[in-house]
Design brief:
Layout (H helix, E strand, L loop, with lengths): L6 H14 L8 E2 L2 H8 L3 H13 L3 E4 L3 E4 L5 H7 L3 E3 L6 E11 L1 H8 L6 E10 L4 E9 L8 H6 L2 H5 L8 E10 L2 H7 L6 E11 L3 E11 L5 E3 L3
Antiparallel strand pairs: 1-3, 2-3, 4-11, 5-6, 6-7, 7-10, 8-9, 9-10
Helix pairs in contact: 1-3, 2-3
């Protein structure tokens, strides 16, 4: 006669099922432990043990002060191995600070790039990433209909590639263009650069299958302190 399965294991398996059905999508914020207590009508201790099990199995990420995230299926390293993508040779972690997060109409320019109507709604997200040695300014554009549940916390925690891959369409291809430009108002304001200083602008367009554009990102970095490499392996 087999032993009865502990309750925390049953709950962990139910959460796994929700992840497999994409009720809890990869890379996105899921209910916190208090909310899981209500969902499963269980004690804090039981839920904590269930979550601990899923964390140990690599299915869930616990971010202190933020909540629980489903482990992303696609990471930045994965996509770099799949494509000949340009990347900053600096490998240090950068602290992210959200400057703008709002919804607006696409307008003619972004509508053309995303192949949507001019009055369709998009997320306009601007954030700075910085460390002791470097700083970047990023502008990320996402169609609202592809990311209806997007939250500021998602942008704060998840890297851009994982975020783009969390929408209704999966990331299939990435196209990039690197330019050397002069610092303008945005770089002066957010990156504390001098007017006319050299800046690298890395423009990225993310595509699903059949060349369907799903996101746009523009990254700005100080050209004096940044080196880029192109990896075709």
């Amino acid at each position: 006669m087999s032993a009865k399965q502990p309750l925390f294991e049953k709950i962990a398996n139910e959460i796994k099922d929700k992840i497999e059905r994409e009720e809890y999508k990869a890379g996105m914020l899921m209910p916190n432990e208090k909310e899981l207590q209500e969902i499963f009508s269980s004690s804090r201790t039981t839920i904590r043990r269930a979550v601990d099990l899923l964390v140990s199995e690599g299915l869930i990420l616990r971010k202190n002060g933020v909540g629980l995230y489903v482990q992303p299926k696609l990471t930045a390293q994965n996509i770099l191995e799949m494509t000949g993508v340009m990347k900053n040779s600096t490998t240090e972690d950068l602290k992210k600070e959200i400057k703008d997060f709002y919804i607006r109409k696409a307008g003619k320019f972004y509508a053309g790039m995303l192949q949507i109507k001019e009055n369709e709604l998009i997320y306009y997200i601007k954030f700075v990433q910085k460390s002791k040695l470097s700083m970047t300014l990023d502008v990320l554009i996402l169609p609202l209909r592809l990311y209806p549940d997007l939250q500021v916390k998602d942008v704060q925690i998840i890297n851009t590639i994982e975020l783009v891959n969390s929408g209704k369409y999966k990331l299939f291809e990435l196209q990039q263009e690197l330019q050397l430009i002069l610092a303008g108002n945005e770089q002066i304001k957010h990156m504390h650069m001098q007017e006319g200083a050299p800046v690298f602008k890395l423009s990225s367009v993310f595509f699903a299958e059949r060349k369907t554009p799903i996101a746009i990102q523009n990254r700005y970095e100080d050209a004096k302190s940044t080196k880029y490499v192109v990896d075709f392996n």
